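Hello forum,

I keep getting stuck at the same step: I have a sequence, I want structure tokens, and every attempt I make locally crashes halfway through. Rather than fight my setup again tonight, could one of you with a working pipeline run this one for me? It's a single chain of 112 residues.
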Amino acid sequence: QVQLVESGGGLVQPGGSLRLSCTASGFPFRFHTMTWYRQPPGKEREFVASISAAGDNTDYSDSVKGRFTISRDNVKTTVYLQMNSLKPEDTAVYYCRGYSSWGLGTQVTVSS
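Reply #2:
Ran it on my machine without issues. Output:
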């Protein structure tokens, strides 16, 4: 059974940082691209960042490029999203995707 479990969300002030984690199980993690998406309130889900199976290629949406960093640990079967210089418009539910499966998401709220 494929499982993706996100954690690390919370409330943070503008300019602050958070690190999200997504721990995967039930599929050969080390062979699969992993992706973070987010869904802001009242909006559609959107791409945030992706990382190749070996971790040697990454891609980011223009809105987060230079502020967010995606990484992975294939031994721990975990993908991370380091989010710096957070803005109110980063407020969203953040989802992990891999092996055609979705996690349940973790809420990130950026507010003073």
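The chain has a mean pLDDT of 98. If your local run keeps crashing, start a new thread with the error log.
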